[in-house]
Amino acid sequence: MKRLLALLLLGFTAITASTPAAAADYDSFRTNDEENNIDVFKSASPSVVYITNSRMVRRSVFNLNPEEIPQGSGSGFVWDKRGYIVTNFHVIQNASRVTVTLQDGTAWQAQVVGAEPDKDLAVLRIDAPAEQLTPVALGDSGLLEVGRKVLAIGNPFGLDTTLTVGVISALGREINSVTRRQIRDVIQTDAAINPGNSGGPLLNSLGQLVGVNTAIYSPSGASSGISFAIPVNTVKKIVPELIEFGRVQTPTLGISLFPPQYADYYRNRWRIEGVIVLDVLQGSSPEREGMRGLTETRQGIVLGDVIVEVDGSVVTNEDDLLTVLEAREAGDTVEVVTLRDNARVIYQIELQATRE
Q1: Does the pLDDT at position 319 exceed 70?
Q2: So what's the pLDDT on residue 21?
Q3: What is the number of alpha carbons within 13 Å of residue 31 lying toward its C-beta?
Q4: Residues 45, 75, 90, 190: which is the catalytic one?
Q5: For residues 73 and 255, what is the distance between their CA atoms, to the nearest angstrom?
Q6: Is 18 designated active site?
């Protein structure tokens, strides 16, 4: 009897094991990561805009009537309900007309409010009603870590509202802006960024802005898994100044410097590292402190002060100097160390506001 029951039980088990499990319902099934991607896209995509620009050109020397031709396109995002839009400077550079298209399909002619080419950022403004505008949520790029997930939304190759997903590949990178100045503390990600993504948001898993997509590293021009974004903490500092003043209010020392295209030539010629003081502005703090620029004698040009350090930060070129000044405000006093006739000279310089 026991043997018979064992055989019956074994048969029942075999039948049960061979019965196929109920098919999963794909419509309702999502992994945790998929659920997060969907939530971020739904919450953030209404903030993303499509930007196109055009410029006026003459087709030939025989045609005196300029024509408007498309110049390029990119992405951007809504900053606030007043109609301010943030994008890359290179997206709107040299444009005669800029058009912003919202997620609802309405297109608005935009006014360029301000730009910071050194950081590849620009602010536009459109007259859209506040109820049509969804500002992006702001995050904190100081909390990012290598390996954290990020999502990019933009318009690559004109394909609007495209989502790509990746991770933070590295932090603290440096890239060159359109002015050849270095943009520092840049975010590197492997989220696919292609032409047309420029100016769009890089988001964290909460759908908060952590960067502005600005460049890719690619021999072919398409995504190669190395993309860069300007950190949101830099954006949060610059955008309010562009809205209020139209430009960044970086204070100055009260001196004039060599134009960038000549600075490297003279540094190499004189075999020095530092920032050469070309001239000292009349009535400025450096003049009162006795700082000297270049002077002309019968024997030729005589070197004056060469700035090598500001507030403990080593200065080897103009980029280093501007990076230090960007973190200060007009009225602050900084300690400037220079070399003059191979001797170190220390000045206490009061920074002054940027002149119009």
Answers
A1: yes
A2: 54
A3: 3
A4: 90
A5: 39
A6: no
